[in-house]
Amino acid sequence: MISHCFVRLIMQHYQDLDISRVLTRRRVDTLGDFPLPDRLTNSIDELIAHSDIIVECTGDVFFGTEVIERAFEAGLSVVTVNAELQVTTGSYLSGKGLLTEAEGDQPGSLAALREDALQMGFQPLVYGNMKGYLNHNPTPEDMAYWAKRQGISIEQTTSFTDGTKVQIEQVVVGNGFGATICRRGMEGLASADLNRSGTVLGLIADGLGQPLVDYVLPDGYSAGGVFLVCRHDEDQAPAIEYFKLGSGPYYVLTRPFHLCSLEVGKTVRRVLAGGGVLLNNSVEPTLGVAAIAKRKMNAGDMIVRGIGGFDVRGEAVRLVDELDHVPIGLLRNTVLRRAVEPGQMITFDDVELQPSRVLDIISQQRQKTVQHLETRPQPGGVLQQVLR
């Protein structure tokens, strides 16, 4: 859906841009309904040879990583609509070339709202997502029904429903902008009034002394957008109250929509104009997304897929607290070494991971994080050994 809509957008509304090639893993002769069927290719080499910039929207961590590495080898910049990749291999890739999440999906929309807020003098305390529905363990039958009704894949429907996607999205935002979480999995406040919920989250962020990422479950208002909870200069309070944002000290700024593929073109133009990165997972992330078992599984059982599957779901964690967690984006046809219980976090000792480029990258990043934590300065200038 993303690629179809994006191609149509560029064709009809971006006369200064041209879609040169579209990479697909499917047989080209089976895609007659694609808007530009003559631009389809199965060759990464052909894609790169005819491109000035790559837009990656596979939703696939493994294939997306391969394509981006190849693009960077050719000196190309990459705009992605793939928070799943960002949170899994994005920190490594961001150190190798220009990789940015696009405006349109919630992380990019929050990044764009943040830029607007900063230019108006606001200081973000909370980066907030809105989630319309949450069921941590939906049935395959329900997901098949809703996938067909919404015209998207069962895997996408499941990751949206069980909360994995919102956890991934908020971790990318947190890593990109130096924000943290208040607890594993975030608060996820039930919210009938966004201003009140924003105040609660603002108080939590102030208590932590650090900006916060979180989400709300709206009741009585639309769940289609994103929001910030901000502070501003005290001497601006009368003007801001006159502008109908309340008396403070916490001000809620909302962007009541995110239009996915219809907004990606803005980020493409940003990069081509030299505007740089809108958002990435940073080269030194502090948050990750762990895999949490949805059901009891035995040694020898296989986790067919992590994101969008029926075996595990994702939860945001602080890396310093959960260094042994397996990133959910790494799980694909993974055999369990030992039994796990519902609600249990999957660790590296629990699974037999298949060799892959993604595993190599995660292992390298994990070691980098361990080394950083082992030698980080503590209060009073003392170096603390965190791990052995």
Q: What is the fold's blueprint, element by element?
A:
Blueprint: H1 2-13, E1 22-23, E2 40-41, H2 44-49, E3 53-56, H3 61-73, E4 77-80, H4 83-94, E5 99-101, H5 106-119, E6 123-130, H6 140-150, H7 154-161, H8 164-177, E7 189-191, H9 194-208, E8 212-218, E9 226-231, H10 237-242, E10 251-255, H11 261-272, E11 287-293, E12 302-305, E13 312-318, E14 332-336, E15 351-352, H12 357-374
Parallel strand pairs: 1-2, 3-4, 4-5, 6-8, 7-8
Antiparallel strand pairs: 6-9, 9-10, 11-13, 12-14, 14-15
Helix pairs in contact: 1-11, 3-4, 4-8, 4-12, 5-8, 6-7
Molecular structure report:
Pfam families: DRL_cat, NAD_binding_3. One of its GO terms (molecular function) is NADP binding. It comes from Stutzerimonas stutzeri (Pseudomonas stutzeri). Residues 8-86 form the Aspartate/homoserine dehydrogenase NAD-binding domain. With 388 residues, this protein is of the alpha/beta class. It has 3 domains: 1-104 and 264-269, Rossmann fold (3-Layer(aba) Sandwich), CATH 3.40.50.720; 106-258, no CATH class; 287-374, Antifreeze-like/N-acetylneuraminic acid synthase C-terminal domain (Type Iii Antifreeze Protein Isoform Hplc 12, Alpha-Beta Complex). It has helices at residues 2-13, 44-49, 61-73, 83-94, 106-119, 140-150, 154-161, 164-177, 194-208, 237-242, 261-272, 357-374, and strands at 22-23, 40-41, 53-56, 77-80, 99-101, 123-130, 189-191, 212-218, 226-231, 251-255, 287-293, 302-305, 312-318, 332-336, 351-352. Strands 7-8-6-9-10 form a 5-stranded mixed beta sheet, with helices on both faces. Helix 1 crosses helix 11 (261-272), helix 4 runs parallel beside helix 8 (164-177) and helix 6 (140-150) packs across helix 7. The longest helix has 18 residues, at 357-374. The protein is globular. It starts with a helix and ends in a 14-residue tail after the last helix.
